[in-house]
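Readers of this paper often ask what the protein records in our data store actually look like. Such a record has a labelled line for the sequence and another for the backbone structure tokens. Nothing more is needed to write down the fold, since each code stands for a local backbone conformation. The remainder of this section carries one protein's record, kept here as part of the documentation.
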Amino acid sequence: MNPAPPSYLDIAPEVSAALHEGQPVVALESTIISHGMPYPENVETALRVERTVRDSGAVPATIAILRGRLRAGLGSDEIDRLGKRGQAVTKTSRRDIPFVVSRGEDGATTVAASMIVAAMAGIRVFATGGIGGVHRGVTETMDVSADLEELARTDVAVVCAGVKSVLDIGRTLEYLETKGVAVVGYRTDCLPAFYTPSSRFPVDFRAETPAEIAAVLNAKRQMGLSGGTVVANPIPPEHALADDEISGVIDDAIAEMERRGITGKDTTPFLLAKIAERTEGRSLAANIELVVNNARLAAEIAAAL
């Protein structure tokens, strides 16, 4: 991908210096701040994730759009701004970027948009909670996340705890296979199911170390193969939820969403909030821990690169 024009992209000085000197950098998304968690847990989590990246030897670069500027790297006050404004900030994917930029607005970047800005800045590794995918009932709704198309075209490795558990995991994996996107399990043979460390769906490849993953990413780049890579990192067992419990909660939340006619961008925030409510906050705690765990692995992979 060609670099963004300087008039649109601001790279934080710390991030720019790290990239120039060949130091490891990890991109982080901002949708989780504005749309994924309530305030102040969203800001506290974002700052904790940045500390985790630093403690693991890399420089964090939280991605967002602020006042119409693409940003790679935010200050704590800017993260607080996104957290306080919450869902008043536009949830921004690929199609939304030109509108948010041209109107001078704030945008909380999804996985897809964060990958785009990371690639523009020259950042190769990105950490998130879970990627979007094929929604349940896709044969009727045709609802497929733009994250999957971005993975097919943008050369950024995405470290995640698998597919968001409210989605159709099997169809998501089939879609990724069709698009030529490899799914690598970090010390696992099956795809994590977000709140739980495993599912019945196998991954394409297994890797035991960050260095092994880095070697794959380097080989892929040297051969000029386009597109991203999914690195699936299971939630630590001590923070996981019971599969039978969370499955029932998700099914109930989806049924309520359908009764209320909630669609599009509003689905994931609604479902996450409803699941947190029905698990009395335990799903939110699990979400925070898996994001931190992914940030740690992403920093280790970036360092190995």
About this structure: The longest strand covers residues 59-66.
